Automatic annotation (TrEMBL):
This is Glycosyltransferase. The keyword Transferase applies. NCBIfam families: wecG_tagA_cpsF. It comes from the Bacteria.
Length: 255
């Protein structure tokens, strides 16, 4: 495993932030998918939680620095880049990247869905539902699916299953940090042209989570809406609350 070369790569809090637009991201990833022979690439969609988690997790920092592409997922990243660097950063959220790639490439695209809760009593799990809905909506090929409720001792087994399925795109939704570390640790084993840590994207694709209304996305308050409407996200609010003073303190230090 080796980190890709990124001369003079822009950063935010020591983390890479390439920050292409959504259209540029889809163009780049589409090129990687169609590249022959294919090479494995990892994508990180950076949000404020990742920044805060990385402050106490050197391995997470290393994994994000090794990613081939880092986009701005959360509006907090856009605000931080503007506040600290005067830099206008476009957003390319994980759910928009996943949908955009499937919409563009359709039947030519083989996708593996990894993450979410497993099924029970004959009911499909989140990953399987996401796969079924994506096949219906975009006509993609389902390379495979697997729930995200497995421990590190099973990582190699799951990675081997993904490698055997030979997807073009791996959507890994196992929570921030866990998903990025898995994608990076097994990138060479899996050999997937594009592996994205995409958090709750599988829940959205599966229909078990609602995408924030468009007006909240335009106004930059979609995460406030998500926290208010989903109890499972309430535990993440303190981390986001700490991000604002963290950024403001960094601005004071540099002034």
């Amino acid at each position: 495993m080796s980190a890709p070369a990124h001369p003079e790569r822009p950063t935010l809090f020591d983390l890479p932030l390439d920050a292409p637009s959504l259209a540029q991201t889809l163009d780049t990833l589409g090129g990687w998918i169609s590249q022959a022979p294919s090479k494995p690439h990892t994508v990180v969609t950076l949000n404020p939680e990742f920044v805060m988690d990385s402050r106490s997790d050197d391995d997470f920092i290393r994994v994000m620095q090794a990613a081939d592409l880092v986009t701005a997922d959360g509006v907090g990243i856009v605000w931080a880049a503007k506040t600290l660097q005067g830099r206008d950063v476009p957003r390319a959220p994980g759910v928009d990247i996943a949908r955009g790639l499937m919409r563009r490439h359709g039947p030519e695209l083989r996708v593996f869905f990894l993450g979410g809760t497993p099924g029970s009593e004959g009911e499909p799990g989140v990953a399987e539902r996401a796969a079924q809905n994506s096949f219906h909506d975009y006509g993609i090929q389902i390379a495979g699916h697997h729930h995200g409720y497995f421990g590190p001792e099973q990582d190699a087994e799951v990675a081997a299953q993904i490698a055997q399925a030979r997807p073009h795109l791996l959507l890994t939704g196992m929570g921030g940090g866990r998903q990025e570390k898995f994608n990076e640790a097994y990138r060479e084993v899996m050999g997937v042209p594009v592996a994205i840590g995409c958090g709750g994207t599988l829940d959205v694709l599966a229909g078990t989570a609602e995408l924030a209304p468009e007006w909240t996305r335009r106004a930059g308050v979609e995460f406030v809406w998500r926290i208010a409407s989903d109890r499972s996200r309430w535990g993440r609010a303190p981390k986001l609350a700490r991000f604002v003073p963290f950024v403001l303190a960094a601005r004071r230090r540099h002034n």
